[in-house]
Amino acid sequence: MKVRFLLGVAAASQLALTVNAAEPEKLPNIVFVLVDDMGIGDVNCYFEQSKIKTPHLDELASKSLQFMQHYSGSTVSAPSRCCLMTGKHTGNAYVRGNKGTVSEKGRFDLHLPKEEITVAELLRGKGYATMCVGKWGLGGPGTSGSPVNKGFDYFFGYLSQSEAHRYYPEYLYENEKKVQLNKKVYSHFLIMEKGLEFIKKQKNGQPFFAYFAITPPHADLDYPDLSQYEDSFDETPFVNNQKKGGFKSQAKPKAAYAAMVSEIDANVGQIIALLKKKQVWDNTIFIFSSDNGVHHVGGHDPDFFDSNGPFRGYKRDLYEGGVRTPFIVSWPEVIKEHRKTSHIATFWDFLPTVCEIADIEIPGNTDGLSYLPTLLNRERQQREHDFVYYEFYEEGGKQSILKDGWKLVRLNLSKPEKLKEELYYLPDDIGEAKNLIGVNSEKADELRKLAMEQHTESINFKWEK
């Protein structure tokens, strides 16, 4: 990936020294809360959401760095998580879509091979204790992609994305062992309990990476207590008419979705309270984000909540609403007051940022770049992306590239005879409503060529049918 190098080696070294990254006892803890399919408009601190209460997130944002143009790894779960963990965009990432595999142990997700290095492996090599709870999505038990084989000391949750649609599962996994629940336990509560317990057990001076990859508000729209919102909205019941499969019927889908987002908000409050109780909050990097844009299944009405804010599109779209996500970063020792940044950042930037903070050599095959200068309020020293690139293999195959405000969206790549291209200029058209492809073919040609240069061949993902 081509980037403009505005930050020299000497300056980078000075940044590392500024945060005491080379001293193990002063390494910051890292807590990443990744929610599933929540829209950027669902939290009040971005676009004045009034229908859902998120007081803890609003309070967090009021004292943190708020990224206003941040992009997820992909527009669906597994590849987005792959980009977050490996520092690669979907043109180079190993997992580029939600793809299942079958083994004697059941149906799981396409697993990362041994040679794919994750941020957890790098942090563990630096002495961090590492944990993932929630939904993994990058490999089942006994594979090279299992979380316990990808740098995590402890895992609890779903090893199969399809199973994660249900909040009352037959079982969850603790590391690679099944924990039988017999559809009697609301999974999210237990997942949070296990994650908090991991933090409680950490000794003073032991840096840790706690990855809360929690499943709400992904459908099913299912929450055991709707009392907070039960009579707040006019409801249209969602009824699952499928004889088998599909999302759970829900009489009050709006109340359920709002309750799930408020549960997330409460979880953020729980984690922060625990970190403060342990007296490690000041030297903890706390990140909140969503794995992609908002979903519109299982009865959820994203337009009612304005879940995607001013942006066009939802999950599975490469329009801004499918990939633009909330990204809030707290680090009290370093970020002293609320700031908003227009710096364009992505999920594949997380790995190099962590490496720079912890004084770890960045793997040479990554596409990301560190946003540590932005965290330190030194944006003049911040390297910038030349472009943000995506490819996606569902719904006919899609591709997009954003450069200097211009965005090319390509549709139906698996059906060349139906190929469609759209060109938008985001500074004037954030809702991607004015297709300029007919009046600026030269810009489209430039972006198309650049997009195809970012695509590498994959044995698992091909547009051609």
Summarize the structure.
Helix content is 24%, strand content 19%.
Outline the structure in words.
The protein is of the alpha/beta class. The chain has helices at residues 9-18, 44-47, 55-61, 77-86, 119-125, 187-201, 253-277, 302-305, 320-323, 350-358, 372-375, 441-454, and strands at 3-4, 29-35, 65-67, 70-71, 100-103, 106-109, 129-135, 154-158, 171-174, 177-180, 208-213, 284-290, 327-330, 339-341, 345-346, 384-385, 388-392, 398-403, 406-411, 420-425. A hairpin with a 2-residue loop joins strand 5 and strand 6 (106-109). The two termini are 28 Å apart. Residues 1-14 have low confidence and may be disordered.
Set out the fold topology.
Elements: E1 3-4, H1 9-18, E2 29-35, H2 44-47, H3 55-61, E3 65-67, E4 70-71, H4 77-86, E5 100-103, E6 106-109, H5 119-125, E7 129-135, E8 154-158, E9 171-174, E10 177-180, H6 187-201, E11 208-213, H7 253-277, E12 284-290, H8 302-305, H9 320-323, E13 327-330, E14 339-341, E15 345-346, H10 350-358, H11 372-375, E16 384-385, E17 388-392, E18 398-403, E19 406-411, E20 420-425, H12 441-454
Parallel strand pairs: 2-11, 2-12, 3-14, 4-15, 7-8, 7-11
Antiparallel strand pairs: 1-16, 3-13, 5-6, 8-9, 9-10, 12-13, 17-18, 18-19, 19-20
Helix pairs in contact: 6-7
